[in-house]
Amino acid sequence: METTNKWSVRDVITLVLMTVLLIVMQLGVNMICMVNHFVSMVLSVGITMLLCGPVYFLMVNRIRKRFVSLVYMTLLGVAFLLMGSWFLLPWFVLVGVIAEAILWKGITPGRLTAAWTVSSLLYNGVNLLPIWFFWDTYSEFALASGMEQSYIDSYVRYYSSPGWVAFILVFATACGFLGSLIGQKLIGKHFKKAGVL
């Protein structure tokens, strides 16, 4: 099945619905993981990318148009903007552009795996950008929104330690890659047979 540039109403509806599903999954995992500081700050991005990988694969394979990843990442950035993290909108637009560049020559399992794996690595900007570039603004916002000082202290401990940052990046990237492999298998064994693709 080749990539085409002509969008249908069905494509747009599919993109919006699956993007909403992905965003709800991502925010839901983040909220669940917040019960424990270690899980929230070290493991949550990896878990998110592992669970969302198959849905991303299904979305891109079902629509098979250019700019699916860009629209999805942009809407994800808008969701973070609405929650007060304005700097994540341009960041996720950039992530979407990178994913589109990887997929530009065609949607193949290998390119799709690369796009999602790189996106999983870059998704860590959610946690790293605030402490690297916007710490004063972020810490004031965190305290004003009711976050405990112990949470902020843990945040600083994990994201200012090179060892922890390296582990977090590797873990998230590996989980994204694994999510891609699961997505490939589900598409090959179940979705195509069921007539979803």
Automatic annotation (TrEMBL):
Coiled-coil regions listed in the entry: none
Sequence intervals crossing the membrane: 12-32, 38-60, 67-83, 89-107, 114-135, 164-183
Pfam families xref list: Trep_Strep (PF09605)
Top-level division of the source organism's lineage: Bacteria
Record key words, sorted: Membrane, Transmembrane, Transmembrane helix
Name this protein carries in UniProt: MptD family putative ECF transporter S component
Record lineage: Bacteria, Bacillati, Bacillota, Clostridia, Candidatus Avichristensenella
